[in-house]
Amino acid sequence: MTVPRPLDRRRFLQAATGMGGAAMLSSWGGPAGAADSPNDRPVFATIGLRNQGWNITSKSTQFADFAAFADVDANVLGENLEKLEKQTGKQAEGYKDYREILDRDDIDAVMIGAPDHWHTKISVEAMLAGKDVYCEKPLTLTIDEGKLIEKIVKQTGRVFQVGTMQRTENNQRFLTAIAMIRDGRIGDIRRVTCGINGATGSPEIPAIDAPKGLDWDFWLGPASKVPYRALPEMRKGYGGGVPLYTNCHYAWRNWYEYSGGQMNDWGAHHVDIATWALGAGDTGPNKITPVSYSLPVEYKNGFATVTNQYNTPTNFEIHVNMPGDIPMIITSEGDNGILFEGTKGRFFVNRGKLAGKPVEDLESNPLPEGAVEEVYGGPVSANHTANFIEAMRARTQPISDVWTHNRMLETCHLANISIRLGRELNWDPDARQIVGDDEANSFLSRESRKGYEINV
């Protein structure tokens, strides 16, 4: 089965009576139980609710009705059920086990905000249960997980949106940046630099009892069985209300067992835009070189030698050879954002600004009409969820499809492998294998803990 790509969505939208995406959302006719919905809107459920899980839910209530939530932390689940009722005036059912949501016939799609190590299992099982999927980035913990998700999307024909929302939102800054490159505003690309911030290590974190209400074993899921760890100091600001140093809520991004550090966090955003701009969404890199890096603990054969401290990189400079021998630099230094350099100039873009002389020149020499829409593949949606629902209507793949996301994410995964092993990697983008390095190839997959295997 061939699954249509975003260009098909563009043709669909152009044929749809000229209405914009937001207007089209008023006549939902989805694949499962939504035809019986009294207000004719798709019915969603969210699995994994802390921080980003609630964020994507909150932004989506204008387009969909939420019938169910699932979270392994009873405190997080109860808090978010209350927030949903306060925001929408409607109640949802709450579950600890996400599989009870997948068993329901009235759910059209699930939004997945669980930690990265759960993404693939939940996504695959949701698609096999007949649900469309919106999953937070990064989509996978390994490269082979990405291949599996691609296989199941093709097998089931489900619509799958990855939460790389920079493709849709942020005042079209990133779309404009790509349109400028396509229009030749900086000539031929000579270098791209992705600034994705550094990180910090941690002190030794003791093993303690898990907080009341948290099913720690279920939270670990496919990952190895280890004790819950935390220090008393609490995190402030975004992600607050939990221990600052822990192997659970929020701080799980600092552990390779559950995520990939900054490389798979901010990297999954900025490397995505850079790869899209270079037109490399179907190929990705061919060489990854770790120029410099710092790990917070000692490593042996690619694995941390201690289990009670953060283990993902704190600082790094990675050189990536992209198609056409264009260098991409992924660095923890400098401003967070993307610097594009070409034969005729350069400019910088992030969530707060689009700056540089080529940008200033747009005032007197604007981009051709429709240039941004051409990048997006049609009228730019109201937000990332709106684009997802448009694709659900048309039964096409949305703007952040799994294929281009996985190709981009292969860069981030390979960068992490090169750091863990301390050496350059040559990548075959056709075979999707590391060339001549069996040890490195062993990091392309992982074994799930018994009882938490992926059911296919």
Q: How many strand units? A: 17
The CATH topology of the largest domain is Rossmann fold
Helix content class: 25-40%
Question: How confident is the prediction overall: mean pLDDT?
Answer: 92
How would you classify the helix and strand content by structural class?
alpha/beta
- The residue ranges in which pLDDT falls below 50 over 5 or more consecutive positions are 1-38
Largest sheet: 9 strands, mixed
Q: What's the domain count? A: 2
CATH class of the largest domain: Alpha Beta
- CATH superfamily assignment of the largest domain? NAD(P)-binding Rossmann-like Domain
Radius of gyration: 22 Å
Distance between the termini: 18 Å
- Shape estimate: globular
**Residue fraction in strands:** 15-25%
Domain Gfo/Idh/MocA-like oxidoreductase bacterial type C-terminal: 201-453
EC number: 3.2.1.49
Keywords: Glycosidase, Hydrolase
InterPro entries: Gfo/Idh/MocA-like_OxRdtase_N (IPR000683), Gfo/Idh/MocA_oxidrdct_glycsds (IPR050463), Gfo/Idh/MocA_OxRdtase_bact_C (IPR043906), NAD(P)-bd_dom_sf (IPR036291), TAT_signal (IPR006311), TAT_signal_bac_arc (IPR019546)
